[in-house]
UniProtKB/TrEMBL annotation:
Annotated metabolic or biological route of this protein: Isoprenoid biosynthesis; isopentenyl diphosphate biosynthesis via DXP pathway; isopentenyl diphosphate from 1-deoxy-D-xylulose 5-phosphate: step 1/6
Natural source organism: Gracilibacillus halotolerans
Residue stretches making up the DXP reductoisomerase C-terminal domain: 258-375
Family the UniProt entry places it in: Belongs to the DXR family.
Protein name: 1-deoxy-D-xylulose 5-phosphate reductoisomerase
Annotated EC: 1.1.1.267
GO biological process terms on file: isopentenyl diphosphate biosynthetic process, methylerythritol 4-phosphate pathway involved in terpenoid biosynthetic process
Domain (1-deoxy-D-xylulose 5-phosphate reductoisomerase N-terminal) ranges: 4-129
Amino acids binding 1-deoxy-D-xylulose 5-phosphate: K122, S148, E149, S173, H196, S209, N214, K215, E218
Binding residues annotated for NADPH, in chain numbering: T10, G11, S12, I13, G36, N38, N121, E123, G202
Obligatory cofactor(s): Mg(2+); Mn(2+)
Domain 1-deoxy-D-xylulose 5-phosphate reductoisomerase C-terminal: 143-226
InterPro entries: DXP_reductoisomerase (IPR003821), DXP_reductoisomerase_C (IPR013644), DXP_reductoisomerase_N (IPR013512), DXPR_C (IPR026877), DXPR_C_sf (IPR036169), NAD(P)-bd_dom_sf (IPR036291)
Protein role: Catalyzes the NADPH-dependent rearrangement and reduction of 1-deoxy-D-xylulose-5-phosphate (DXP) to 2-C-methyl-D-erythritol 4-phosphate (MEP).
């Protein structure tokens, strides 16, 4: 039986992870979990899975949970709580499913304590990929990708030689506004942006898919996870989200991973690797029912956020930290109705242009820059 610490249990990935763990309760137990504000969902999960420890965001949530909890659970709160459960000696697997760079220290802690890491929290790799991968390589701790494209690439690289990779091909659905022109984006609403054509996800990543920043973050994530130069990471539009990504080798063979859009599969694979388990209610892909698959060149004029991400990744240093912090702040403002959809890219570009890049920033510098960028943006709009 493997004990799991699930960071971000009440979110989209978190809840699907609970489903996977519950279906294999002979193999996994939810030993510890964390959440942010959603006390109602947290109580449902606590009742269902009976974790021993629950890490909450702050003392206010701590009080709210304590008042309603009738299970014998240890509750811890505050900044270090995520790291505390990631380091717990009983924990075998850490599933990092929090949204945002708030997951950074917990990732470093899970590496330090040599846990098996099922890694969804892409913002962590964007903001501090050089630190995270240096620590992971030194500790000999692999980050098992949960992100569907990176799970596909991980599978397509399996058993192959890295130096024989020609390029990585990341697929993008195009997001909620893929059939809208730049002009038509002027008046779109939050509700429009949250209407992803293929996936049901958390709000922030769904907006990121619409701006194409999600794919930009995934380019940086792939660079760090697999050590592939940015010049060898290509993004193509693939409306069906059936091919989750591909690897082309020097002989121009392309190895791809396909499946129905169901995040429980990459989640489960990161938990069970190198084995594969079956899963109830997971739909088999019927290619003859799909008929055709479509591929188009990515238009970076239409999606400037993808260009910003490549620029930040290639320039490196503290620029990816600025890109990620500005994006998190801008999307939060958009979701609150404070800025328009097209303002998101403007906020990011301005933050990047105003920044004086720091080379090879350490953890403290990354956290300082992250908070400074957010403060400056929120001052302008709140
Ligand atoms: N959803 C998906 O299908 C995919 C997601 N990912 C990545 O996985 C990660 C999670 O995404 P997703 O599940 O969609 O996100 P959600 O917003 O649905 O969930 C995020 C989780 O993190 C918690 N959380 C948010 N902010 C804080 C904070 N400051 N402190 C503590 N906990 C916090 C939330 O708590 P609460 O809700 O209780 O406030 C929630 O449990 C992201 O990095 C995303 O990019 C990658 C591929 C696919
Ligand atoms: C399910 C998942 O991994 C998301 O990152 C998804 O890929 C978003 O899709 P697009 O960014 O391709 O619209
Ligand atoms: Mn993805």
């Amino acid at each position: 039986m493997k004990s799991v610490a699930l960071l971000g249990a009440t979110g989209s990935i978190g809840k699907q992870t609970v489903d996977v763990i519950s279906q294999h309760s002979d193999k996994f137990e939810l030993y510890a979990m964390s959440f942010g504000e959603n006390v109602e969902e947290a109580l449902r999960i606590i009742k269902q899975c009976k974790p021993k420890i629950v890490a909450v965001k702050n003392d206010r949530v701590y009080q709210l949970l304590k008042e309603q909890l009738d299970e014998p659970v240890k509750i811890i709160s505050g900044k270090e709580a995520l790291s505390e459960i990631s380091a717990d000696p009983t924990v075998d697997i850490v599933v990092n499913a929090v949204m945002g760079s708030v997951g950074l220290r917990a990732t470093l802690t899970a590496i330090e304590y040599k846990k098996q890491i099922a890694f969804a929290n892409k913002e962590t790799l964007v903001t501090a990929g050089h630190l995270v991968m240096e620590a992971a390589n030194q500790a000999g701790v692999p980050l098992l990708p949960v992100d569907s494209e990176h799970s596909a690439i991980y599978q397509a690289l399996n058993g192959e030689k890295k130096n024989q990779v020609q390029k990585i091909i990341l697929t993008a659905s195009g997001g909620s506004f893929r059939d809208k022109s730049r002009e038509e984006l002027e008046g779109v609403t939050v509700e429009d942006a949250l209407n992803h054509p293929n996936w049901s996800m958390g709000a922030k990543i769904t907006v990121d898919s619409a701006t194409m920043m999600n794919k930009g973050l995934e380019v940086i994530e792939a660079h760090w996870l697999f050590g592939i130069p940015y010049e060898n990471i290509e993004v193509i539009l693939h409306r069906e989200s059936i091919i989750h990504s591909m690897v082309e080798y020097v002989d121009h063979s392309i190895i791809a991973q396909l499946g129905t859009p169901d995040m429980r599969i990459p989640i489960q694979y990161a938990l069970t690797y190198p084995d594969r388990y079956s899963l109830n209610r997971s739909k088999a892909l019927q290619l003859t029912e799909i008929g055709k698959l479509h591929f188009e060149k990515m238009d970076e004029q239409r999606f400037p956020c993808l260009t910003y991400a490549y620029r930040a990744g290639k320039e490196g240093g503290s620029l990816p930290t600025v890109l990620n912090a500005a994006n998190e702040a801008a999307v939060a403002l958009f979701l609150k109705g404070k800025i328009s959809f097209l303002d998101i890219e403007k906020v990011i570009e301005r933050a990047m242009n105003l920044h004086h890049k720091v080379d090879n920033p350490n953890l403290e510098m990354i956290e300082l820059i992250d908070s400074e960028v957010r403060k400056e943006i929120f001052q302008d709009y709140l």
